[in-house]
Amino acid sequence: MLIRFWSLCAILIFLFVGCVTVDRGWNTSGLSTPGGRPATFQATTSYALHLGCGYLPLWGDASMEGSVKAFTEKARETGASRYEISSVDAENYCMGLLGVIVIPIIITPMKTTVYGHTYSR
């Protein structure tokens, strides 16, 4: 029973590792930001496996630098020429996911979400 549980956890983790998801919102209800009227509000989430509690990317890149790079690449795909990052939410599951055991400390699943406005001009 315990082996099945760990196998299911491993399969679920490996399904999402190395992928980037993007959510966009276009309705600003006529309001603007200090930078002007945004084209979209974008939330880009990166999933990855890192070594040593998030120190070194192993499969994918959910570090701050990698996530901001993914955010800007996805913003360029929609024709954005400028962006404004409003928030970054980084989570590493070093201790919280499976408790204090050796495997999550060595190979750590991570998730980082970058939120911000994109501008077309």
Molecular structure report:
The protein is elongated and about 55 Å long. The chain has 121 residues and is α+β, with helices and mostly antiparallel strands. It has one domain (2-26, 37-119). Strands 1, 2, 3, 4 and 5 form a five-stranded antiparallel beta sheet that branches. The model has no long low-confidence stretch (mean pLDDT 80). The chain has helices at residues 2-16, 64-77, 102-106, and strands at 20-25, 40-51, 56-59, 82-92, 107-119.
**Main sheet attributes: strand count, strand direction, barrel closure:** 5 strands, antiparallel
**Integer-rounded radius of gyration:** 17 Å
The low-confidence runs, each spanning 5 or more residues with pLDDT under 50, are none
Oligomer: single chain
- The general outline is elongated
Fraction in helix: 25-40%
Number of strands: 5
* N-to-C CA distance: 56 Å
Supply the number of helical segments: 3
How many individual domains? 1
Structural class: alpha+beta
Indicate the proportion of strand residues.
Answer: 35-45%
**Global mean pLDDT:** 80
Q: How are the SSEs ordered, and which strands pair?
A:
Elements: H1 2-16, E1 20-25, E2 40-51, E3 56-59, H2 64-77, E4 82-92, H3 102-106, E5 107-119
Antiparallel strand pairs: 1-2, 2-3, 2-5, 4-5
